């Protein structure tokens, strides 16, 4: 396969495949994937096909099986049942060949604290057998892309969290991977740093890179992904584009009000037909007819706010709203 | 070509070299304190024991005590340096800095990484032994060129001690754990293997114990080479060192695999 991809990446996952069989082959295919720890299925029969060039998100609460799924993809966790093929090659038999064409951004910082920014890239490149003028050029480009040009000679412990993440992503791109895997890439980052990283990721689209990320930030999934799988207790419970998920699973409008107001509202037997959900100290009212609900609330003098439904609402509906530790 | 991992036998590739070079690159940055530890301390032992004890002891096995102890300390310092590297430093890379985890995002496998760590430990053992050899030559304790032949033996021995240390690392949950191995294995070997005094002076059962462990065999080869004679039963001694190293590498790789690939 061409590392830069023959297919046209599209915003909503319906990549226009060419006629040749290679292009039609999914970049990642999982069938009946299963992982059992101490008798508990952490990943419980996952089937997924991710076409080349797609930006794909695995969304789920903590402990849903996202990281374990990614680890099996990389050959870092033995597969108990089912199969994984990446770029047409079976894991773990071809883990070495597959990882040569993959970029990985782990959940935790794995940068080398003894090295500078540039030395980190040079050293990581050497694991792929890369060196020489081609590599020098590539490092210049990646530092530029990551906006770290001025920190080339800086020690890792002088970098901010956002810079470390950007460097980790730059490091993952050193081998010009066809597939990039990111495990919670922006966890712990402030909003500015997150947007910076997103921009770095969006640029990969033009190169036709396939991207798989896990996250529990809904805006991140909505912002970046063509298609999202919501995973809970090791199973995929929904998989589609963000807009299709919202259309299919929740009412288009959400009205939120405080718990105290909500009690008053519920007590009223004339309550309009609407779905309600309590989360922490807020009640969410889901409705296709916000004007009617708002008129009702206003006549009762209850403060409230209205917004369009988003992925978070889908997530709350499908995974329940209990706090996960 | 598919490569299903053999459940037991590690299959490292030449990709271990960049891992070794990574460690070298770090070491070059921290060379001064590292050299002081790996080389300064044994030299102090050599001088203090050599001059201090040497006066009292006089000759041992037909050589001055200073020469006797210099040839022993070359072996023990290789053991210490390689063990330290295979435990504290390798553990840092495995459990604290996630260096190995980062490597597993590349075409490297754990077989490559563990093998590279063993070779790296051997390299550091060799460097410290070579540094002591230089000091011993400057002091006039070594005069025969055969001493150079001791270096490959020391490299092999350090590989064995590094691999043994990696076995300990593979089951360690914290740095404190390494004290068990130092107290129960490294120190007894140091005291019983003929480094500071001849093994023949010990009771028979102690000699038997010492010869069941690798360090005594290293000393048996290195001491004659350092003093300008040829060692005897070289094949036997080498066989013990190689056997320990090979088994330790296999066990360390399997245990680290079980620990990290789960």
Polypeptide structure, described:
The complex is a heterodimer of chains A (325) and B (262). With 325 residues, chain A is of the alpha/beta class. Chain A folds into three domains: 1-101 and 177-194 and 210-250, Rossmann fold, CATH 3.40.50; 113-175; 251-308, Alpha-Beta Plaits (2-Layer Sandwich). Helix content of chain A is 34%, strand content 26%. Chain A contains twelve helices and 14 strands. Chain A has helices at residues 21-24, 66-74, 95-100, 117-127, 132-145, 161-172, 191-202, 218-224, 242-249, 259-267, 290-299, 311-319, and strands at 28-37, 40-50, 55-59, 81-86, 89-91, 102-105, 179-183, 210-215, 227-232, 235-240, 253-258, 275-279, 282-287, 305-308. A six-stranded mixed beta sheet of chain A has the order 6-7-8-3-9-10, sandwiched between helices. Chain A has a four-stranded antiparallel beta sheet with strand order 2-1-4-5. In chain A, strands 12-13-11-14 form a four-stranded antiparallel beta sheet. In chain A, helix 6 (161-172) runs parallel beside helix 7 (191-202) and helix 9 crosses helix 12. The longest helix of chain A has 14 residues, at 132-145. The radius of gyration of chain A is 22 Å and the shape is globular. Chain A starts with 20 loop residues before the first helix and ends in a 6-residue tail after the last helix. By secondary structure, chain B is mostly helical. Chain B has one domain (16-260). Chain B is 73% helix and 2% strand. Chain B has ten helices and two strands, in the order H-H-E-E-H-H-H-H-H-H-H-H. A two-stranded antiparallel sheet of chain B has the order 1-2. In chain B, strand 1 and strand 2 (63-64) form a beta hairpin. In chain B, helix 5 (110-138) crosses helix 6. In chain B, 50% of the residues are buried. The chains are: A alpha/beta (325), B mainly alpha (262).
